[in-house]
Amino acid sequence: MLDQTPATITERSALKVNPAKTCQPVGAMYAALGVHGCLPHSHGSQGCCAYHRSHLTRHFKEPVMASTSSFTEGSSVFGGMANLQQAFQTMFALYDPEIVAVHTTCLSETIGDDIPTIIAKSRDEGKIPEGKVVVHANTPSYVGSHVTGFSSMVAGFVKYLAASTGTRSNAVNLVPGWVEPADMVELKRYTAAFALPTIMLPDTSSVLDAPATGTHAFYPKGGTTIAQIRAMGDARHTLALGAWASTAAAEQLRKQCQVPFEVLDLPIGLAATDRFVSALASLSGTAVPQAIEDERGRLVDVINDMHQYLAGKSVAIWGDQDQVIALTEFCRDMDMKPVHVMTGGHGQAFEERVKALLADSVPDANIRQQGDLMLMHQWIKNRPVDVMIGTTYGKFISRAEDTPLVRFGWPILDRVGHSYFASVGYTGGLRLATQLITAIQERQDRDAPDHALELVM
Ligand code: SF4
């Protein structure tokens, strides 16, 4: 289908073709899975929940548990309160979650169901057992993207649970942004290296990368605990990674519990990781551990050694705002040319940030928020690139334009490894750099005539 994409670009203000995003509840569900003992609940029709669960399962290759209010025609007309109340009773009776995280869908938002009121009424009527917790986030999919849903649900956990006791702890809150379970492990390794007591919310490690044990655990051992989320209110500082995914939770903590915060880019690539490491050093009051310095040195070494393969190579990048900004900076710093940069998400600030990043090296780059993959394909047709970085959906463009694709972001439906190997930090940067170098070298090998096929590169 994408092979039929015309090269001539026509302005389309009211039509998206292959949008570079998914809907809000997917993100809300992903965030909820990062809380221990949590059952995500989709307040809408079964189809929404089935789609969101299956999309997460296809990306992580793990079973994803979630419940639904199972709207019918009746709920669509009269509202979903009865369904949600019934769902609370069923969920707590059958699946015994510690916490239920309700997110809305297009339908329940259009009806206008008042979730806080339904939760309060259900508690009053004993439909939510004593000691059990229910939180919610509004996630209408006709605005925003999966990142908005993720951000709103993380902020929702804070809103319902974080509390200030009046005594500050030594802990630092870390809101990791939309990253993979392996990235969350890596972020915790960094804070541990600085001996910084940290509460990370959410934490999908040991949930969506859980090992096979021979026994099914409905609630895997990972996830931020309710007690930890409560304690976030007493922390002395919040580090929010990724402006689009994490600012809302950090802002909520400041508003609710007066915890100061700073927002950093996702620590993907050399410069962004440097800024993250500097922040950890400053918060901990300690020097950067030698082991971390060595990891940085290895990344710098590989970038230097392989510079001839990366320098000047044009690249197209699409995905979530926070990830694309970090990837653009990393590619630029390796002397690559990000000529097409797009997010399916929203935010004029995205375009401004990318433009500033590329002002000196690629002043004529195509940059777009709320873009779609049809436009990306058209850009590539008009200005071909050496390599693309993006989601699985780019494989059709890759086939049509015979251009290598390095898979990155959400979702990756046709490969494995992304959830098990970190992309953040210096070692994550090394992995990304080697993926890019390998893609370029494989293309060079494939295209080389016999006499020019090199054994050593
Ligand atoms: S876009 Fe709306 S209706 Fe469609 S799956 Fe997402 S929440 Fe459900």
3D architecture notes:
With 457 residues, this protein is an alpha/beta fold. It has three domains: 24-153, Nitrogenase molybdenum iron protein domain (Rossmann fold, 3-Layer(aba) Sandwich); 172-288, Rossmann fold (3-Layer(aba) Sandwich); 292-451, Nitrogenase molybdenum iron protein domain (Rossmann fold, 3-Layer(aba) Sandwich), CATH 3.40.50.1980. The chain contains 18 helices and 13 strands. The protein has helices at residues 24-33, 46-60, 73-78, 81-94, 106-111, 115-124, 146-161, 181-193, 226-231, 243-257, 270-284, 290-305, 307-310, 321-333, 348-358, 373-382, 395-401, 425-447; strands spanning 38-43, 67-68, 99-104, 133-137, 172-175, 198-200, 237-241, 261-264, 314-319, 337-343, 366-368, 387-390, 405-407. The strands form three sheets. It has a five-stranded parallel beta sheet with strand order 11-10-9-12-13, with helices on both faces. A four-stranded parallel beta sheet has the order 2-1-3-4, with helices on both faces. Helix 1 (24-33) crosses helix 7 (146-161) and helix 14 runs parallel beside helix 15 (348-358). The model has no long low-confidence stretch (mean pLDDT 97). Iron/sulfur cluster (SF4) binds next to helix 2.
What's this model, at a glance?
This protein is α/β, with parallel strands linked by helices.
Name the features.
457 residues; alpha/beta; Rossmann fold; 3 domains; 5-stranded parallel beta sheet; 4-stranded parallel beta sheet; 18 helices; 13 strands; 13% strand; binds iron/sulfur cluster
